[in-house]
Amino acid sequence: MAARRTDGSLADPGDRAGTGRRAAGQPRARVTGAPPPAGDDPAAQARERILAVIRAIPRGQVMGYGQVAARAGLPGRARLTARVLGQNEDPDLPWHRVLRSDGRIAMPEGSRGWREQTQRLRAEGVAVERGRVKHMPRSADDLDAALWGPG
C-alpha cells in the first residue's frame, strides 16, 4: 500500500520517504486505480487500432487476422488480433468478418460461435461452405498471391 504524504495524499510507492523522488529504476505508479489512457499505453493503442480496422471492414467483406494486424500497422501480429477479439465486449463490433488466412472460421466446427459466425456471414451475402469462405480476398501486400493466384 502506498504511504501517505504529510498533506494526506498518497505517495508514489517508488517515492523515497515521501520526498517526491523515486528510487533509481522504479517506475512511476498510478495511484488513481483507473486504467491508463490509450495515449499513454502502447498495448491500448494497438488494441484501438485493431478495433478500428475491424469496424471499417465493409458489410459482406472479410479479412484475415494477419491482414487486420497489418492494416493496423502491426504486421506479423495476427495472434494479437485474435486476442483482442477474444476480449471484445462490444456487441456492435463486426467480429464475424475476421477469419483465418485460409478463409476458414477459427472456432471449432459445429460450436455455437462457429454457427453464429457462419450465420452472420451468410446474412451479409458471404458464401460460406463447410466453415470456409469460398473467395477469401488476398492481401494487396502479398506479392506471391498477386503473381501466382490462390494456392
Brief digest:
The chain is mainly α and 151 residues long. It has 5 helices and 4 strands; from the N terminus they run H-E-H-H-E-H-E-E-H.
Computed CA radius of gyration, to the nearest angstrom = 22 Å
Question: Which fold name corresponds to the CATH topology of the domain at 42-134?
Answer: Arc Repressor Mutant, subunit A
* Largest beta sheet: strand ordering: 1-2
How many helices does DSSP assign?
5
Could you say what the CATH architecture of the domain at 42-134 is?
A: Orthogonal Bundle
Assembly type of the shown chains? single chain
Helix share bin: 25-40%
Shape estimate? globular
Low-confidence stretches: 29-36, 143-151
Q: How can the largest sheet be summarized? A: 2 strands, parallel
Given helix and strand content, the structural type is mainly alpha
How do the strands and helices of this protein lay out in sequence?
Blueprint: H1 42-55, E1 63-64, H2 65-71, H3 78-86, E2 98-99, H4 112-123, E3 128-129, E4 132-133, H5 143-148
Parallel strand pairs: 1-2
Antiparallel strand pairs: 3-4
Helix pairs in contact: 2-3
GO molecular function, one term: methyltransferase activity
Protein name: Methylated-DNA--protein-cysteine methyltransferase
InterPro entries: ATL_DNA_repair, MethylDNA_cys_MeTrfase_DNA-bd, MethylDNA_cys_MeTrfase_DNAb, WH-like_DNA-bd_sf
Structure explained in plain terms:
The chain has a domain at 42-134: Arc Repressor Mutant, subunit A (Orthogonal Bundle), CATH 1.10.10. 32% of the residues lie in helices and 5% in strands. It contains 5 helices and 4 strands. It has helices at 42-55, 65-71, 78-86, 112-123, 143-148, and strands spanning 63-64, 98-99, 128-129, 132-133. The strands form 2 sheets. Strands 1-2 form a two-stranded parallel ribbon. The longest helix has 14 residues, at 42-55. It is globular and about 45 Å long. The model is unreliable at 29-36 and 143-151 (pLDDT under 50).
